[in-house]
Every structure is written in structure tokens, then in C-alpha cells.
Amino acid sequence: MLDTKPARALRGMYIDGQWRQGARSFADLNPNDGSLWAEAPDGGRSEAVAAIEAAHRAFPGWAALKYTERAKLMHRIADVFERRAPDFIAAVQAEGGGWYGKGAFEAHYVPEVFRSAAAICYAASGEILPSDYGKLSTAIRFPMGVISVISPWNFPGILTARGFAFALAAGNTIVLKPSEDTPYLGGIFFAEVLEEAGIPAGVFNVITCSRERVAEMGDEMIENPLVKGISFTGSTPVGRAIAAKSGAHLKKCCVELGGKDSLIILEDADMERATQAANFGSFMHQGQICMSVEKVLVQESIYPEFLEKFAARAARLKVGDTADKANVIGPLINDRQVARVRAQLDDALAKGAKVVVGGGIHGRFVEPTILAGVTPDMLVYQDETFGPVVPVLPFRTDDEAIAINNDTEYGLSAGIFTRDEARALDMARRLETGMCHVNCSSVNDEPHVPFGGSKASGLGRHGGRWSIETFTETRWITLDRGGRPYPPVF
Q1: How confident is the model at residue 433 (pLDDT cuts 50, 70, 90)?
Q2: So which residues are the catalytic ones?
Q3: How many CA within 13 A on the CB side of residue 148?
Q4: What is the 8-class DSSP label of residue 356?
Q5: Which fold has domain 8-257+457-476?
Q6: What residue spans of 379-455 are helical by DSSP H?
Q7: CATH 3.90.1150.10, applies to 261-438
Q8: For residue 42, is pLDDT > 70?
Q9: N or C end of the chain: smaller count of CB under 10 Å?
Q10: Residue-averaged pLDDT of the chain
Q11: Which residues pair with 254 in a beta bridge?
Q12: What are phi and psi of 255, to 5 degrees?
């Protein structure tokens, strides 16, 4: 049954410490049933300019603030977010189409991002260098200025927080544009939290827009000369365009993009844990995670047993409207994504792949689907799926598994299951991925770690001190105490 409740009235865009409604709005839909969940303000270039200028004005004062004061504010943000966890979880189920457990995980994780960012305020911000001339020679990190943050819809809590928390703690000011699919979860909710925590006017700004105005707003967020850095999490095609535009303007950017991640199961793996990791990694949030397991590679001696047990686990996952906490598999975020998954599935079946379990598509709901007989000429082998469809492929040797994993333009994450840690580490060194996890799923993250990929999966790293490296600039400053001589001719 469609939700008959009236659409929520979102407070608006948050610019220079003020809430602003746009001249027009766009529909923010519940992906479970297509009903109108909220009306979101539809901004454009002028709102982006206003937010950037506000952030630029606020930068000197924020950068000059004592690091202890910035740390205290990060802790207050964490506390407010934690208190508002029930609001966030409810929005994850409705606006984001996520399982209750997924929302609860995000709500628990996000405060730790800000607490980790608070800790960074106390970390070393430079070093002393040797000098032949008796100088006090220092390399010091300074905040850059205005950072544009463009965040995605799939994990709008974690991926938005990670995109700006460390940059903010370092003394930068922020202009955030969330996805048009989750303008509340990925943007306006954060503005509410940071406002309650006491963020100074202009330090943190949120602007929203419809899909039709993304290019207009996004271009301003990159090209405006007051913007000094860009943080983007999203698809590889969009990330390529953003990185290219950033490079043309000689601006630093950190782009975390898509993946085609493998879970490699060796013959001595713990079968119970390996099948659970495959189930979680492939189907958590309907496979709509950049580091989802998109290929399960199984050593051929255990392939039949693994496939049978994996299929049994997948078949138990409940599919349906995420308003019901029991439904673990919710809808894909929009009809475009359903069409993408359908095209990959139809292509695979037409070319000889077989459905082991699942295969049904009902509106935006796609059953957890395991495929066998997948070959390299199929779209599901080549392209990122971002849905609950995963092929299981056999391999003979470690070299073959590594070759299959590396046979893609992507290189985000991977997992290896074996009791032989030395063997796993040898394989991990040869995988073309930014991350690899032994005896765990490819889906892994912690606030303080260097998160990011290689190849077409991204550029730069988010998390902890690696975010600080990305969103600060290093300056060489010396004090001449040795009286370095100049040539006599001068």
C-alpha cells in the first residue's frame, strides 16, 4: 500500500548559518513504493556561489581557531548525531530504502568518524627537517580553504561524514552537495546536526538540487576559484569527469569510485565463515556498496560444496519493503539502477549463464541472485553491477585467481579466505586493489584507515591522517639562525 502521509517539509538548504528554501523543489521519493517522501529544495549555480562565498568568508576564523576548540566541536557533533540515531535510521529505511540493520550500523559508525576527526586535531601537523645552514627548517601542513564535498546515496551517513569530517577538523570550511536520491540523509540531516552542535556560520554549508541541475551546481563547486579542493564519492564515469575538471583547474581532489571486487575462497577456507562473508559481501544493502563482492572465486576442489552452501544462505534472505525490519533485502534506489541490473542479468542468461538461486525482479526489488557459468564476455563479469547479483567462478591455482581478480579496470577491495596467512599475504601483494582483507569480506571500513582504490576505483585516500594529507597543503617555512652567506658579488 502506498504511503498516504503528506510529504515532509525539509528545512531547506543551509547557507551561512541560515536555512533557505529554493525557488522550486523536487520530489524526494521512497524507493520502496515510489511514494513522495519529501519535497527538497532545488538549487542551482546561484546557491552554490552563495555557499562557497560564505565558506570563504568563514575560513580565516575557523582556520585560526584553537585545535582544541575544533576537537571539542567534533565531539559535540558526534554526541548530537548519536542522540538523533533513531531519526537517521527511520530515514534510511524510507528515503534510502535500506534495511533497519544497515541504518543502525551507519548510525553507530558516523559518530566514530567525528571522534576520530577530533583525535586528528591532536596529531602532528608537520616535522623538523635537517639544514646544512643551521636553519630551523620546518614542513608544516595548513588547511587549504573551501572544500567541495559531493556525496553518494548508498551510504549517505558514513560516506558523507568521511568526505568532510577530517577536512573540517583540519581547519577547512565545507560546501556539501548530497545525492539527489538522498538529499536529507546525505545533507540536510547533517546540517541539522552541525547547527545543533554549534558550528559557526559559514563553516559548513549544504546545498541540494534535482538530477536536472546537478551539472550546473557541480560545475560551480569545482570551477569556482574560491574552491581549493574536491571530495567526491560515487560512480567511476562521474569521478573521471570531476578529476579531469579538477586537474584542469590545478585543484586537489580525492575521488572514491566503483569496484568489481572479488572474494577469493581457497581450498582450506573455513566454509562456514566463507559462505557467510560471501552472503554479506554480495547482498548487504542489495549489493549497492562500492566494495561489494561482485565475483566469488572458489578453488575448484571445493566449488560444489561452497556453491550449495552459499545458495542456501542467500535463499533465506527476506526481500521486501524496508519499513518491515525483517526484510533484509530492500529496493534498488531507482528505476535506472533496476534497468542496469536487468540488462546484466539478461545478457548473462542469453550467453549461457545459469541461475543457481534468485533471478526474480519485481519492480525495484531484485532477489538475491547467484549465477554459475559466467564467462568474460558477459556484462556481469566486466561491469560494476551495484545490485544483488553475483557470479561464482571456479579457479585452479592461485595465479589464476589473481589473474581473474585483476582482469578489470577497477581495483578497490578484495577478500581472501584461507588458513594459510603467508599464502594470503603473498596473493594480496599481487592483487591490483587499494585494499585487501584476509579471512573477511571485501566490505570493510574503519574511520582511521586509508580507504581508497587503485586503477579506475579512485584517486587519493579518505580516513584518518590520510584525509589530512589530501585536504591540507604542505609549506616549507624556515628561520635562518646560521647566517647563511650570500656570494660576495651581491
Answers
A1: very high
A2: 256, 290
A3: 32
A4: E
A5: Aldehyde Dehydrogenase; Chain A, domain 1 (3.40.605)
A6: 379-382, 398-406, 421-430
A7: no
A8: yes
A9: C
A10: 96
A11: 231
A12: -120, 120
